[in-house]
Recover the amino acids of this structure.
C-alpha cells in the first residue's frame, strides 16, 4: 500500500497536539507533588518532563499505536523503506528524544577529558580536537536551528532523533492533505538556513585571527541581542529561561500562557523556572 509523505503543517499540528497533552500531564503531576510539600515539588521538576514523555510514548509509539497528535492529523511513523519502524528503532528513538542532549554533553565531556590526558596525541592534535569539540558543544543550539530549517524545507524529520533513525511521517487520509502553506514553509526554511549559515561563517571568519570561536560567539550574541525578540524593544525587567534566552518579564509570561516552550529554541519552559535578572545590564 502506497502512502504519501505528510506535509510540514501536518507534522507540526501533530507535534503540537502531543506536546499540549504531555504538558497537561506535567501540570497534573506537579499539582499532585504540591500536595506532598515544597520539597517534593521542587525535587521533581527535573524528572517530570522525562517521566511524562517516557510514559506517553511508551503507551503509544512503543505499543504500535498512534499518538493523539498522529491520530488527530491522520499520520503514521514510517521508516525510509516504507515499513513500520521496529521496536528497537522506536526504543532508540525514545532514548534519543528524551535524553539525547544530556547524552551528547556527557559524551563530549568524556572525549575532552580523554584527549586532555592522552599520551598518544601530540599537543597540536590535542589543541585542534579540543577546539573542535568545544565548538560543537557551544554551537549545539545552532545545529538545532539548522535541523529545524531543513525540516521546513523538506518536511521529513521533525526531531533530530527522527533524522538519525530515518523515521518520517506519512498520511493515512490523503484527501485531508493541505499544501496551502508548503511553499511558505520552504521559503521560511531557506531564509532561516541562509541566515544561520551566514552568521556561522561570519563567526568562524572573525575568530580566525583570535583562534577562539567560543569567545567570539558569546561576545557577538551579547552585542547583537540587547533587545527582546518578542516585543522588539529594549528589555524591561529582563529574565532568563533555563535554556539561556533572555526576554522581558511580561513578554515571556504572556507567551507561556499559550504554550510552555521557549519562543526561540522551542525547549520546554515552565513558568516557575523563569529567573528574574535583577543585576543584568
Amino acid at each position: 500500500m502506497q502512502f504519501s509523505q505528510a506535509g510540514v503543517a501536518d507534522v507540526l499540528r501533530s507535534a503540537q497536539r502531543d506536546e499540549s497533552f504531555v504538558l497537561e500531564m506535567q501540570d497534573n503531576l506537579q499539582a499532585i507533588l504540591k500536595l506532598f510539600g515544597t520539597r517534593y515539588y521542587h525535587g521533581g521538576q527535573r524528572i517530570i518532563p522525562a517521566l511524562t514523555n517516557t510514559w506517553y510514548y511508551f503507551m503509544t509509539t512503543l505499543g504500535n499505536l498512534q499518538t493523539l497528535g498522529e491520530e488527530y492529523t491522520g499520520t503514521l511513523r514510517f521508516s525510509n523503506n516504507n515499513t513500520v519502524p521496529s521496536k528497537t528503532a522506536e526504543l532508540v528513538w525514545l532514548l534519543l528524544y528524551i535524553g539525547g542532549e544530556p547524552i551528547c554533553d556527557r559524551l563530549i565531556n568524556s572525549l575532552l577529558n580523554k584527549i586532555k590526558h592522552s599520551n598518544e596525541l601530540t599537543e597540536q592534535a590535542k589543541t585542534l580536537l579540543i577546539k573542535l569539540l568545544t565548538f560543537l558543544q557551544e554551537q549545539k543550539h545552532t545545529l538545532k536551528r539548522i535541523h529545524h530549517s531543513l525540516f521546513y524545507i523538506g518536511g521529513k524529520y521533525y526531531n533530530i532523533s527522527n533524522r538519525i533513525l530515518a523515521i518520517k511521517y506519512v498520511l493515512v487520509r490523503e484527501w485531508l492533505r493541505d499544501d496551502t502553506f508548503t511553499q511558505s514553509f520552504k521559503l521560511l526554511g531557506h531564509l532561516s538556513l541562509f541566515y544561520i549559515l551566514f552568521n556561522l561563517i561570519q563567526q568562524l571568519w572573525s575568530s580566525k585571527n583570535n583562534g577562539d570561536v567560543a569567545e567570539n560567539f558569546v561576545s557577538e550574541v551579547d552585542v547583537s541581542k540587547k533587545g527582546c525578540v518578542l516585543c522588539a524593544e529594549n528589555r524591561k525587567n529582563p529574565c532568563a529561561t533555563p535554556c539561556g534566552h533572555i526576554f522581558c518579564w511580561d513578554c515571556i509570561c504572556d507567551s507561556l500562557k499559550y504554550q510552555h516552550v521557549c519562543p526561540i529554541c522551542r525547549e520546554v519552559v515552565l513558568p516557575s523556572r523563569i529567573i528574574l535578572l535583577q543585576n543584568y545590564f
Notes: The first helix runs from residue 8 to 35.
